Amino acid sequence: MWLVVRIDLHAHSDASDGTDSPGEVVASAREAGLDVVALTDHDTTAGWGEAAETARALGVGLVRGMEMSTRYKNVSVHLLCYLHDPGSPALVAELAKIRDERAGRARVMVDRITEDYPITWDDVLAQAAGARSLGRPHLADALVAAGVVADRDEAFERLLSTRGPYYVQHYAPATKRAIDLVRAAGGVPVLAHPGATQRGRILPDKAFAALAEVGLAGIEVHHRDHSPAQVGRLAEIARRLDLLVTGSSDYHGDGKPNRLGENLTDEHVLDAIAAQGVTPVLRS
């Protein structure tokens, strides 16, 4: 009998915009029947310690990573970064700048929203709790708590999307520079949901080759926000450029409908990622 290893390489905790603690993400991964889960909070590694402690206790494999906000020309691009050195000075400095800019952008958006709806900056901070990376999902949670919308999805659809009335752009490094920083930190860069057309503009085909030339390792092909056409397109791009193909849930706890294990990554892909990273995978 073949042993199937179930691997989900994209999950968020309340260190950024998830609703579970890092330890709860790992515990939920075990309950979902996963063998390995990656913790990939936005622009922070603050949850690594707690996640690792729980992973060792429960016998769950853990890939330590993050999801980095970047920009390719006029396209917002999220870059998953696996198994890097969390103390790399250049990367640490860039992440601090991104987080500061995120918080500043959120404050400006709240100032605009409060002209029309009953939420305050303190309401947003209360929803963010101890998050190291503050973003639009926390604004969405404040709107839900105030009864303005029913859930995060409605908040983004009506008010907070890039096409919404209160949106403010925030600083993000160029994707090529981010890949350089990740590689210099010994990490493995993989594009997150690059075919999610409902999120806004997506990367054109030629961009993938340009990013592969500077060290991109893979593409998150299997994601709930990808249509079958986008899955086929991205799989072909990965094949042509010899890039790794991953599949993930993009789990956010109760913050999104995404469920752990709804898309999975092959074990040989994880082995290839582990061979490139400087931080080891915690094996169960």
Features:
7-stranded mixed β-sheet, 10 helices, 284 residues, globular, single chain, alpha/beta
Can I get a quick summary?
This protein is of the alpha/beta class. 41% of the residues lie in helices and 14% in strands.
What share of residues are in beta strands?
5-15%
How helix-rich are the residues, as a percent range? Answer: 40-55%
Major beta-sheet overview: 7 strands, mixed
Order of helices and strands: EHEHEEHHHHHEHEHEH
Give average pLDDT, whole number. Answer: 93
Number of E-type strands: 7
- Given as residue ranges, the uncertain stretches (5+ residues, pLDDT < 50) are none
Protein model, in words:
- The protein is an alpha/beta fold and 284 residues long.
- Helices cover 41% and strands 14% of the residues.
- It is built from 10 helices and 7 strands.
- It has helices spanning 22-31, 48-58, 89-113, 121-128, 136-145, 152-160, 175-184, 205-213, 228-241, 267-276; strands at 7-8, 36-39, 61-72, 75-82, 188-192, 218-222, 244-247.
- The protein has a 7-stranded mixed beta sheet with strand order 1-2-3-4-5-6-7, with helices on both faces.
- Helix 5 (136-145) packs across helix 6.
- The chain is globular.
